[in-house]
User: What shape does this take?
Amino acid sequence: MKQLIVFIKKEFLQVFRDKSTLLLLFGLPIAQIVLFGFALSNEIKDSKIVVADYAKDAVTAQIINKIASSKYFDIERTLQSADQLQTAFKKGAIKLAVIFPVNFAHDLEHTNKASIQIIADASDPNTATAVTAYMTQIINDYNMQLGRGAGLPLQIVPEVQMLYNPGLQGAPNFVPGVMALVLMLVCTMMTSVAIVKEKELGTMEVLLVSPFKPLYIIIAKLTPNLIISILNLFIILILSSIFLDLQVRGSILLLTIASTIFILTSLSIGLLLSIGANTQQGAMTNSLMGMMLPTLLLTGFMFPIENMPLALQWLSNIVPSRWYFIIVKKVMLKGLGFTSVWKEVLILASMCIFLFTISLRKFKIRLQ
Amino acid sequence: MKPVITTERLTKRFGDFVAASELTFEVDQGEIFGFLGANGAGKTTAMRMLCGLLAPSSGKATIAGFDIYEQTKEIKTKIGYMSQKFSLYDDITVSENIRFYAGIYGMSTKQIKAKTHELLEELQLESEAKTLVRELPLGWKQKLAFSVSIAHGPDIVFLDEPTGGVDPVTRRQFWDLIYSAADKGVTVFVTTHYMDEAEYCNRVSIMVDGVIAALDSPNNLKQQFAATNMEDVFYELARNAKRKGD
Assistant: This one.
């Protein structure tokens, strides 16, 4: 036991002496959250939009007025033709267009139903979701007013169309996504590099000749990474609460436990990767190429898994971050408890045990 | 003198390739035993088997009286090892390295403290105790690595080409350390390329193509091959080798 403590102490010394690693460890999550934070919070107020009013009647005038008075939108100018609209979007001059068809008021009065077309520039999906949501809100408000005044179920149906990125995802998805990505990368990379470093230095042989148990080597290597990763988790949570106003709705304890399982899974993957690599660079490349892409693509926060070809959907099931992402979304964003995430936690825990056992066995084989 | 290393027809095969074939020899306590051979001759394989890094394919061997198949745990506490590359961590300090290695061999805090002090004094490295190992000159690092490998008081120390890339003066100093360890009763098992170093050993074994081609004291070998130095002895034996170095 005392030997183990000596080893863990050495691991910490090495981590804290290496300023560039430290910067990477703690800089990565901070940079991600702050970047996403600013991308989300800026620009949504006073978004430039255009209104194309083909009806020009009393109802459209009222709605336009309501839009103009909102703090979210600045009506640039009114356009008449579809061509002008295209040009404005392509230049990036506007974020949203609202189009009232001819006979808007007429339709509303006679069929109790009228449509408004809302077109958003979804090349920046976060902004697009936000602005369309606000716009829909304004129209729904107006709907309510109408309904109350006339006592009739009058309906204005906003038809929302997302340009450039039809499968867009909501903004809060990014924080759980960043959590999955950062923890996965940091854990696998740190672990594989730490072990391969010993191989490169030749110190691994000395350790294996010594009476120090191989299992202890693994534990000593994983402990600092586990602690640093949990610290990282809290940094992300605190930052997202400050910058993104996104608090954990559910139990923080549950989130921490699930995260720890996910971290241990990632550490085991790092362990496995280190067995295949002989240089630190090799280990780094393996974890970047081997983990970054599947995590980015198959977790579900960049591209929705439901829209993928069936083969990829199947493949995504073996990506641990996919399950972790679901847990974080449920616990953090929806405030759900253990009863609604136990399946995902169980899957993650089985993956963790499976990967750890394999890497442990492989590690021992290598000693022979 | 009682033998501390005995091997009997110790063999390591990798598939069809016999890396070390039927090695039989004994090493006495306090002896400096040189293990020579060209690259690929099998000397590292032989050493790795004796250290417990490689499982032998067949044959018998005992280290410090313990069987290398059954009593690996006991053997580990009796041996020290210095690898070809380097056995120190270059991103922590000199004294942290000493404390670490003494620590994983289970020495007590008090013993570690005394040992650290003793080693630093012996190597005249007191002023460098808080220096990162990577900032030390190569020769110092190697001397430190050797001292660290015998810090826990092993019966036998295995040195795998310990003096690669060092200038002759530092090599000479390194050998002074080896002599002083042997004087204290530590058995030194050393592989090397350098024939001048072979002269420093009590006995040398020369491996060619996985077998021990000659084993005796440097003087006897020179007589036997009618050579003036070990270089000629080695050349005489190794020139017919079929394996090419890697």
